[in-house]
Amino acid sequence: MRRMNRILAAAAVAAGGLAGCDSTVGLDPTRPTFTRLLVPGACEVSDDLQMIDISVMMLDGTTALLPDDRLQREFQPVSELLSHEDFAFARTADSTLDVPEVGIALGENSGMQQGVDLRTLSLQFEYSGGEERQQDRRLVVLLMDHSGSLIGEDPFTQMINTANATDREDQRIAFFQQLVNNLPREYLVSLVSFKGSFVNITEQFSTPQPNRENIADGIGELQFDEGGLTPLADALDQSLTRIIDSEGNRDLNPVVILFTDGVESGDTSATNLQAVTERYASRAGGPVPVIVMQLQPPIPTDGSPGFTRGRNPDLVNLACRTGGEYLFIEAPAEFTESQNLQSIVRNRIVGTWRLRTETTMNRAAFPPDNYFLSTELTVTLGGRSRSQALSRGSSGRDFDDTRLWFNKQ
Question: What is the domain extent for residue 157?
Answer without folding.
Answer: 132-349
